[in-house]
């Protein structure tokens, strides 16, 4: 993998027993999007990491004391920042797509294994 993930520090993804932890399926998909785009050369890992660290620092500076920390929401915001900086996608397009995805029913992306060959 061309994305050398931090083990410690603000940019380090959540882990349990050394393994990455995803609370919701969308978190693993967001993670995969960033890694895939990085490996495809859409942007560099240092550029994404810098955007992620900036988003985390901004959240820490503005968060209310009782506000829950959501690492992968910041991960997605950093991806938006990087893609916006590249002018690969507009903020309006990101917002429209996010709204469309949010309206999909739960389990929409999950199919059974029937009909699949291994």
Low-confidence segments: 112-118
What portion of residues belong to β-strands?
Answer: under 5%
Separation, N- and C-terminal Cα atoms: 25 Å
- SSE class: mainly alpha
- Radius of gyration in whole Å, from Cα? 16 Å
- Helix and strand element order: EEHHHH
Total E-strand runs: 2
* Strand order in space, largest sheet: 1-2
Residue-averaged pLDDT, rounded?
83
Major sheet description: 2 strands, antiparallel
Helix content: 40-55%
Q: How would you sum up the global shape?
A: globular
Please tally the helical runs, counting DSSP H or I stretches of 4 or more residues.
4
Give a description of the structure.
It is a single chain. With 118 residues, the chain is mainly alpha-helical. Helices cover 51% and strands 3% of the residues. It contains 4 helices and 2 strands, in the order ββαααα. The chain has helices at residues 25-39, 45-62, 71-85, 91-102; strands at residues 15-16, 19-20. Strands 1-2 form a two-stranded antiparallel ribbon. The longest helix has 18 residues, at 45-62. The radius of gyration is 16 Å and the shape is globular. Residues 112-118 have low confidence and may be disordered.
